[in-house]
């Protein structure tokens, strides 16, 4: 007997289920009813208070969301599963607003099986569910922040909508994008990761969309771009804020029409890719300054993942450090096998401006130079006496704002000290002094 039947719970359809879906659920033992907008304020007598809504966002999504909102006004805590598809109006603010609240999102082309499995996962005592502890974390870490992130990655992976990943440098944005691809139905197809900031401005269009022979001087042969070669898979555009405006226009076409044109050709080519984008800069600000197209921003910003900085992942620093040390030892057989108490304290007190990447680099270097089985703060080039981070004090807020301003400026100046000093209107000596004060190892950050 299925769980729907055994628990007396039922499914409330919002929108129109297909015949296969409707009878498929009934055959599996779920009692189903279709939400009647005329009597949404009544209790759901047929189901009790533990009904689960299945909201069809594949057609007539705005009307479905209105019905859902009314249902939830009258039945707070009602868990719901969203069915999305190519016709889901992804950039409609009302849709954007509700998607993250879904218990799970299922791509419309997925099987009835996926819906049945998702229904089985909804906990009997309703939502919100903090974490599904049976599921291993998608990324290394056990902090509440990482577990919440893992849950969102699982939720967003099967959905065919663009997604924006935000977060400081080294927080694992690319890793999250790879996890989204691996957990999606596209996992057998290519994953193309492109750093928009690293592409020379005159080659961006050709790299992304390809070119025809003779399209420009030096185009001696046809070239297939990343979007075409990743057909069927996922394209991850890192540092999307650095994409030049003309390439932004073409990216918008991919998102709106699912087509590209190679440079030098006016023939549209259909491509089927899911676009994931990442940024460490504030894209809203870039839109306000006219550096980023507003319509593209709304297209990309349908689903959003925020990567927490390492300093917010209490408990993860030691876990990740040991993880990197173990992995390094396996390959290089170093003497160091753990961290001294002082090293652990120093790591926990450090602010990690370069986040997980910096932690990994410091641990690997320490593993090489450590003379002992226990890694010391000196091996990690950390100050053993750094006071703990007192997040609430004004002094600490000032210090962390100063640190952030320097890290941002260093990045924007490609780690050129003279350029950074010019931008901050201080001397080079001051930049070096501030780097020392905040324990910013330039080679690590680069
Ligand atoms: N949770 C994690 N577990 C294990 N390794 C991690 C984790 N998060 C990040 N890393 C590692 O840290 C490094 C940086 O991660 P990644 O490149 O994904 O960060 P990013 O946010 O995309 O950085 P950038 O903004 O500089 O592009 C990678 O080597 C990645 O494997």
Provide structural commentary.
- The chain is of the alpha/beta class.
- The chain folds into four domains: 3-121, Rossmann fold (3-Layer(aba) Sandwich), CATH 3.40.50; 159-306, 3-Layer(aba) Sandwich (Rossmann fold); 311-375, Helicase, Ruva Protein, domain 3 (Orthogonal Bundle), CATH 1.10.8; 394-445, Orthogonal Bundle (Arc Repressor Mutant, subunit A).
- The protein is 41% helix and 13% strand.
- It contains 19 helices and 14 strands.
- It has helices at residues 3-7, 19-27, 61-74, 93-98, 112-121, 144-156, 173-182, 204-209, 226-229, 245-257, 283-288, 294-300, 316-332, 341-349, 355-369, 394-412, 417-424, 428-437, 442-445, and strands spanning 10-14, 31-34, 52-56, 79-84, 104-107, 163-166, 191-195, 234-238, 259-260, 269-270, 274-279, 303-306, 338-339, 374-375.
- The strands form four sheets. Strands 2-1-3-4-5 form a five-stranded parallel β-sheet. A five-stranded parallel β-sheet has the order 7-8-11-6-12. The protein has a two-stranded antiparallel ribbon with strand order 9-10.
- The longest helix is centred in the C-terminal third of the chain and has 19 residues, at 394-412.
- The protein is globular.
- The model is unreliable at 127-133 (pLDDT under 50).
- Adenosine-5'-triphosphate is lined by residues 139-141, 167, 169-175, 238, 280, 320, 356-357, 360.
- It comes from Luteibacter yeojuensis.
- Keywords: ATP-binding, DNA-binding, Nucleotide-binding, Transcription, Transcription regulation.
- InterPro entries: AAA+_ATPase, AAA_lid_NorR, Homeodomain-like_sf, HTH_Fis, P-loop_NTPase, Sigma_54_int, Sigma_54_int_dom_ATP-bd_2, Sigma_54_int_dom_CS.
């Amino acid at each position: 007997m299925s769980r729907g039947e055994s628990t007396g719970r039922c499914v409330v359809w919002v929108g129109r289920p297909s015949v296969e879906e409707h009878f498929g659920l009934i055959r599996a033992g779920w009692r189903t009813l279709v939400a009647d907008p005329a009597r949404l304020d009544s209790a759901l007598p047929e189901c009790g208070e533990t009904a689960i809504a299945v909201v069809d966002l594949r057609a007539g999504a705005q009307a479905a969301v209105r019905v859902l909102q009314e249902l939830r006004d009258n039945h707070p805590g009602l868990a719901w599963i969203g069915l999305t598809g190519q016709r889901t109006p992804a950039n409609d603010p009302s849709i954007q607003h509700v998607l993250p609240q879904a218990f799970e999102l299922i791509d419309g082309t997925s099987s009835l099986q996926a819906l049945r499995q998702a229904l089985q996962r909804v906990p009997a005592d309703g939502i919100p569910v903090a974490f599904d502890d049976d599921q291993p974390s998608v990324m290394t870490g056990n902090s509440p922040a990482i577990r919440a992130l893992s849950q969102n990655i699982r939720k967003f992976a099967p959905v065919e909508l663009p997604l924006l990943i935000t977060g400081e440098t080294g927080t694992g944005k690319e890793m999250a994008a790879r996890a989204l691809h691996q957990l999606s139905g596209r996992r057998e197809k290519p994953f193309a990761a492109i750093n928009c900031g690293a592409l020379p401005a005159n080659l961006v269009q050709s790299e992304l969309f390809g070119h025809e022979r003779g399209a420009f001087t030096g185009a001696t042969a046809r070239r297939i771009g990343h979007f075409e070669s990743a057909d069927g898979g996922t394209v991850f555009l890192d540092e999307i804020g650095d994409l030049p405006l003309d390439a932004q226009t073409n990216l918008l076409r991919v998102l709106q029409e699912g087509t590209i044109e190679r440079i030098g050709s006016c023939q549209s080519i259909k491509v089927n890719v899911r676009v994931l984008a990442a940024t460490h800069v504030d894209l809203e600000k870039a839109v306000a300054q006219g550096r980023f197209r507003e319509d593209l921003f709304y297209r990309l910003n349908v689903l959003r993942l925020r990567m927490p900085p390492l300093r917010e992942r209490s408990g993860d620093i030691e876990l990740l450090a040991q993880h990197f040390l173990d992995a390094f030892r396996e390959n290089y057989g170093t003497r160091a096998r753990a961290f001294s108490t002082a090293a652990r304290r120093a790591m926990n007190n450090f602010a990690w401006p370069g986040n997980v990447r910096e932690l990994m680099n410091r641990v690997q270097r320490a593993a090489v130079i450590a003379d002992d089985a226990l890694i010391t703060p000196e091996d990690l080039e950390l100050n053993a006496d750094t006071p703990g981070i007192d997040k609430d004090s004004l002094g600490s807020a000032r210090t962390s704002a100063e640190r952030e301003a320097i890290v941002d400026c260093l990045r924007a100046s490609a780690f050129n000290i003279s350029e950074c000093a010019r931008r901050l209107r201080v001397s080079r000596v001051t930049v070096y002094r501030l780097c020392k004060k905040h324990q910013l190892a330039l080679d690590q950050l680069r």
